[in-house]
Inverse folding.
């Protein structure tokens, strides 16, 4: 429960109507009931404002709703997220170190750390204040984990990895698995030991079953604020910049570098040893095979190999006409040959 | 060991030959030995019937085999599956709640529940009769699991998820991980709490390392009888209908709706906020980007963006001719221009 | 620490310079310091040899470096891998069977086996000498594991699977999950019990969150020396040959056969019931839908459906020109029709 005027302060907005009303939940505009707070982030749903049962609505400036209390702020979607976080409170109660976890004596834990049953934490691990290890998490030796991280159930962090503050690992995420490196030895392959590490900087989130491979030598690094969705594959020695968003099932091959503020659509990919600049967006299923420099304007690419998105879209729309085009070309050749013959005969 | 006549009753078929013979195993037609039951689902393998060592063969009506006992039934493949299930018996012996599992006091278990060592089950979880949790399964708080479910090793079910009866999770499946939702906050991203849940209805099966994200608000729902293969990604707020089959490495993006009896080939995908009707098949690697309505006849689509499968196939077969086509077009332009010139000169 | 002359013996090379110098680490040529050994595998980086601070350099025959001690051998990359392995030493100290692991009484362990806390090992499992099970590994009943295997944290091996010697499973790899098999039963699906097994031969490596499904009947088999990267999906009854390399997020559908010494680029796929010969390379995102025979020379295919790689590359480069080509064809048709008209009128 929170008073609307307190929530307004939280999100740097102001209340139009009675700021003392209390809300207990945030709900979508079409299912909100009395006591709920809802939000209008897309003006096209404005007509729903008059019928929603919600007690109050978060709106952008310039939207007035007769007989409805509104919380006006510049970015309603962000305000919704912040209020939701506030109302949710701490996700996992502090439980300390469970007697049913297996924590090496040399582990160094900060204040308010929670280690749930079934976790295994190796030698010389450092865990920062307020960090939570949900059940079944395995931390190998010599890992450093920052403050207020959440490592969900069955996540694995292998030896020597370094996680910053507020890092979130979804369930079964794997940090620091061996890079895929083999030296040909006659007709077989000899495994190249992967002795580098993984560094996840502050505010990085890694999705379920996503896998970040350790470097062969040196580091695989994901910079501050970058978010990875489920089943993303990051190969050894990859470097990813800040605030980059990588959606599900994307793969980035070995030693590639991705800039800041890039966005990857689902199932897209980057080949090995490629360098991409900042502010580049790769469409779903796209595949980057060449270095990409940042232009002044943000760049969007699609297709495989990835080309300018608009060009790709036009080409993709034409793709279904290929057989008809081929037929026409053959027909044109015949017609033209015949015409040439006619002219020669004249 | 089972008598053929008893198996015939089980599958609503009848025996031609000696129904009292006993079989102990089901085996493929080319490796079956004496004592085995085999099956003919595809008539093109009919010639193998005469050489198989199997004691008896499941056949469709109208197939006679000299000197071989047959079990005749309408759907031999289904009969084979049912007999295999019968001969296999219960897969996991009932073991009760292991003293080496960590089960909260508030957990409510039905009859004949098995919880293996290394499982962790949170507060207020309800587990139905006959359900089995294999080792290392982690269940967060407030989860409801129906009857006769099998949750394989290291599967994770996050808070508030609801599983129906006879749900199967393969190893390391993840149910209820956070949806991938972030609100832009200047140049960074602010995590949107994902406070919705996941609902898996009766008879749903989820493959290994498949990930079903919880809704931002509301539900992510997979309806009765739908089967997901390994490493399928289902994003937040997705709704999937009944008896839909989704093969490995498919991704369905946020808030999309998929109908009943749909089929997805490997590595295919659906973009966000798309609605697909019933009885639609998407070919391997296909990508759906627009709403698809069910037509009277079943629909098959392929390619990215997905188009009619036959058209796509023809276009895909023409794809390799693109350079030759381009050359021909340029040649035609030249020839035509020259011809125009010749005519003008005449 | 190792003397260079001893390392030379290990890799069948020889030292030019002082063989008694000691090195303690292998480092990349641009970051190597005094005390480090570095390597030159690609002659294009030769200029860096004069500036590197490394104590010694592994080089191929014919490369001389003024004032620098060199270890000359035929295959510097392989030598680098072998020396790295030697300097690394055993990765995981022998710890025996942890009292915090849950190991059935019927398990048969060889010498020097390590079973870490939180592992669960089922009935009648056989584990060979020197094998290591990291924390959280779950082994179902009747599994056989060879010598000197490493099973990383939270890997799962289901019932009856057989692993050869020196097999490596990265974290959360899943071996022996159910194949995806269902018999249509009216409008629903009936699960076909998957009663076959998985066999991983000697020296196989399986990446993080990769899933190898058990056979319906019979075996799914991955032959000696084959390496799978993260999140690879191998369906039921697949057979993969020796020394084949399958990079991340590849999917091989049911009952397909892949030969020896094949290579798969990231996110490529093989459809079900396809047979591929030896020495075939499939490019990233490629999809094999037909049987492929080995030719005398190694074969490279790309695209979906996969075609000769060079042809695909040319066609892919032409793809963006499709709209322009279509426009030209339409223009040609018009121009030609007009020309025909003109000629007729003459």
């Amino acid at each position: 429960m929170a008073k609307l005027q307190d929530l307004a302060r939280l999100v740097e907005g102001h209340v139009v109507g009675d700021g003392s009303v209390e809300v207990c939940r945030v709900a979508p505009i079409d299912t909100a009931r009395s006591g709920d707070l809802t939000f209008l982030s897309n003006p096209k749903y404005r007509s729903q404002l008059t019928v929603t049962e919600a007690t109050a609505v978060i709106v952008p400036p310039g939207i007035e709703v007769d007989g409805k209390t509104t919380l006006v702020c510049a970015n309603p979607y962000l305000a919704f997220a912040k209020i939701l976080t506030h109302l949710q409170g701490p996700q996992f109660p502090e439980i300390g170190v469970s007697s049913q976890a297996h924590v090496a004596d040399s582990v160094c834990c900060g204040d308010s750390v929670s280690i749930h049953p079934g976790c295994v934490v190796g030698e010389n691990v450092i865990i920062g204040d307020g960090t939570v290890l949900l059940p079944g998490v395995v931390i190998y030796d010599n890992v450093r984990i920052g403050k207020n991280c959440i490592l969900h159930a069955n996540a694995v962090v292998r030896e020597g990895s370094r996680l910053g503050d507020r890092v979130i690992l979804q369930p079964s995420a794997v940090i620091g698995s061996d890079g895929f490196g083999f030296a040909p030895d006659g007709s077989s392959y000899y495994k190249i030991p992967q002795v580098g590490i993984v560094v996840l900087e502050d505010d990085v989130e890694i999705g379920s079953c996503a896998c970040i491979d350790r470097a062969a030598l040196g580091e695989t690094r994901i910079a501050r604020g970058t978010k990875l969705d489920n089943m993303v594959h990051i190969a050894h020695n990859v470097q990813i910049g800040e605030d980059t968003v990588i959606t599900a099932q994307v793969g980035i091959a070995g030693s590639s570098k991705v800039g800041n503020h890039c966005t990857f659509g689902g199932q897209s990919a980057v080949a090995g040893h490629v360098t991409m600049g900042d502010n580049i967006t790769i469409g779903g299923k796209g595949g980057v095979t060449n270095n990409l420099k940042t232009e002044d304007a943000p760049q969007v690419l699609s297709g495989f190999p990835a080309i300018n998105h608009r060009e790709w879209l036009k080409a993709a729309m034409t793709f279904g006409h290929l057989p008809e085009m081929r037929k026409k070309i053959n027909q044109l050749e015949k017609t033209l040959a015949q015409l040439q013959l006619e002219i020669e005969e004249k």
